[in-house]
Amino acid sequence: MKNKNFNLIICGVGGQGQITLLRILSEAAILENKDFKAAETHGLSQRGGSVEVHFRMGKVFSPLVSQAGADLILSLEFQETLRAMYYCSSKTKVLINDKIIPIIGEIPLKKEKILKEVKKFTKNIKIIEASKICQEKLGKEILAGVFLISLISHQKLIPLKPKSLLLAIKKQIPQKYLDLNLKAFELSKSFQF
Amino acid sequence: MEKVLEKTGKKINLLGNEAIVRGALEAGVDFVAQYPGTPSSDVGDTFFRIKEKVSRINLNFHYEYSTNEKVALEAAAGAAFSGAKALASFKNFGLNVASDFFFPLAQIRLPGQLVIFIADDPSCWSSAQSEQDTRHQIFAARLPMLEPSVPQESKDFIIFAFELSKKFQIPVVIRHTTRISHQSGPVLFGKIFKKSKKKFEFKKDIERFVTMPPRVLRMKIDLIKRREEIRKISEKSPLNKVFNKEKKSKMGIITSGVGFLYTMETLQNLNLKVPVLKLGFVFPLPRKKLQNFLKGKNRILIVEEGDPFLEWKIKELAFEMKWKGKIFGKGGSMEGGRIWKERKSILPAAGELKPEYVEEAILKILGKKSKYKNHLRKFLEIKVPVRFPIMCTKPVCPYWSVVKAIKKVLPEKEIIFGGEIGCYMVFAHKAINLQDYLFCMGSDIGIAHGITKATNQKVLAFVGDSSFFHAAIPQLINTVVNESSPLIVIMENQTTAMTGHQPHPGQKIKIEEIVKACGVKNVKVIDEVENQKEFENTLKEFIKLKGPKVIVARRMCALLAKKLKK
């Protein structure tokens, strides 16, 4: 991208914790003293609707990522990946959580079909069973979000150090749930990418 | 520790709405009233969480969720009439509710100070009823209006708004749009105003507070005069600033709010130096500054969120100065659709702005091609069904029981279902399909009355508990007095769920007592989950009865119940 900015879209379904993830990333950016902008989605869409949040680093003005302007799309739900293609260019990396949350009244789209569409935009696609891993190892699939943002930090897919992310998690997550979230962070560290 | 209460000198990451709270605290606000509505809700919610702590810093501090926005504005005004620094906060539709009071209030010379915070919601991210731009009403009321672009400005502007309010004894409006309210960024903290107990007093003054003709015309003239005084300040204000000063440039951009951010981003990406006039002090419009900006240029792009309001005003200014050139924006005039069809607008007239729209507009004016067209075509080929919001399933929302019972015992096709604003507006979801009209809070009963009077059809109107107190009581009385027969189901989940679980008057006042006092004879309170059978039987029985009848479905929001358990 021009100006070496970093543009991230996190998409998924209301209730998957996108706002918390955004706040952790923002906190990590503050700890590293880096410029950033974030845009949250509130209200109606949170009741099981589609939710996308934007996170941008560098000398940026707009809180929104531009069309075809994402460096990384982190999709917490398989079908929602398609909607995020608005932000996808051939240079964009796409990380998909292998999880389908049905759209009420619709037959879920087939994964192969979704991937075929995504491949029209980019070849950099990776599918990760984050929900499944978190459910099996930690008993809570909601941790998939923290697992994935930790993973992108460990894998250097985002210009934020794992150390800062860890501190940010400690700062943003309430004491009661902290232990599990820290475990999700650790789990992502040893994950074979 | 609440972020907004952090120490002076710190740089903290805040949402635009949180920055409004911090700014108000630094300005020494005494009285805050809000009715929740996204994207404005977090202003009130933050004050609600910190009110005890703030009361120890400013001993006069009062925060309340008022019954509706008109009540909130009246309460804040009453405090300002008595010498306090007051803030009223709500979303765009809130101004509609408050308008009856808002317009006469505008002309009062305030002994204290009053700031009104309003958040518009372009693209209707959290708004069902319409995509509404409040600048029309604020302009019509002749009030000063400031429009920040980033959280730091939200904080700085509200402090300035209180100063302006004090100097000119006038209410000052701060307008946000969704992307300003829910954008986060660093804010440098100033000092929170400490205050000892002060005795505010309402000093009787007929000339000031009693709006009656012919006095009210003198008030209007006084307001117009003050507006012109304030215009002198907006003309010189650093809030209205030219970026990329290039004397020779024939092109210029005039913008405000989030439009400024998209403009600067685009110019940076395209490596262009086009002069940009950013309006932060929007009303009264800095007419001379705008006309000076037009001079020497022949192409002006207006980048604004909402209706082509600035465009309309700037075209007027251009006409007055016999300016020769072309103004680009959302197209045509305020007349709307007809003209938009005839002329190709360069920015869309509906929906929020996006950075790429601004880029395309600038490229188009420069005669260059957009790089987005092919990508957009490819994107539009993707078929993915819309994921409409629906009631919670984990934990299970009690409204599912209402839906189940109605589907089981009532002849769905023969009944008209009236909806209004709240979680149950998702009854329009095709999986539920129990909604035949939807407008605003309370209007479902008002409309139900009209339908049952005009036809032989049966109407079942759903009302929320918070909205019952907000706007449904006059309509309920009307059904009694003018004798119609709707069945009204009040969905009492004991909270304002949709906007984030704010409390409402139902915690102190029983809804059924109000309903009875309004003259409704047939009233029943039923827990629709616990007593499903009774709920079903009552539906069957009530739908046949003459006259208005009310079922209060009382069962706590499952999310709230879960939260309270923890």
Task: Give a structural overview.
- By secondary structure, chain A is α/β, with parallel strands linked by helices.
- Chain A has a single domain, classed as Pyruvate-ferredoxin Oxidoreductase, domain 3.
- Chain A has a six-stranded mixed sheet with strand order 2-3-1-4-5-6.
- The radius of gyration of chain A is 16 Å and the shape is globular.
- By secondary structure, chain B is an alpha/beta fold.
- Chain B has 21 helices and 20 strands.
- In chain B, strand 2, helix 2 and strand 3 form a beta-alpha-beta unit.
- Chain B is globular and about 80 Å long.
- The two termini of chain B are 20 Å apart.
- The interface between A and B is large, with 48 and 52 residues.
- Strand 2 of chain A pairs antiparallel with strand 8 of chain B, so a sheet runs across the interface.
Please report the distance between the alpha carbons of the first and last residues of chain A.
Answer: 24 Å
* CATH uppermost class of chain A: Alpha Beta
CATH topology of the largest domain in chain B: Rossmann fold
Count of helical segments of chain A?
Answer: 7
Tell me what the CATH architecture of the largest domain in chain B is: 3-Layer(aba) Sandwich
Query: Can you tell me the overall shape of chain A?
Result: globular
Q: Specify the overall morphology of chain B.
A: globular
Total count of domains of chain A: 1
Q: What percent of residues of chain B are in strands?
A: 15-25%
Please name the CATH topology of chain A.
Answer: Pyruvate-ferredoxin Oxidoreductase, domain 3
CATH homologous superfamily classification of the largest domain in chain B:
Thiamin diphosphate (ThDP)-binding fold, Pyr/PP domains
- Rounded Rg of chain B: 26 Å
Q: What is the terminal separation of chain B in angstroms?
A: 20 Å
> On the 0-100 scale, what is the average pLDDT of chain A?
94
* Oligomeric grouping of the chains: heterodimer
Helix content of chain B: 40-55%
Query: What sequence of helices (H) and strands (E) makes up the elements of chain A?
Result: EHEEEHEHEHHHH
Considering DSSP H and I runs of 4 or more, what fraction of the residues of chain A is helical? 25-40%
The total strand number of chain A stands at: 6
Strand order of the largest sheet of chain A: 2-3-1-4-5-6
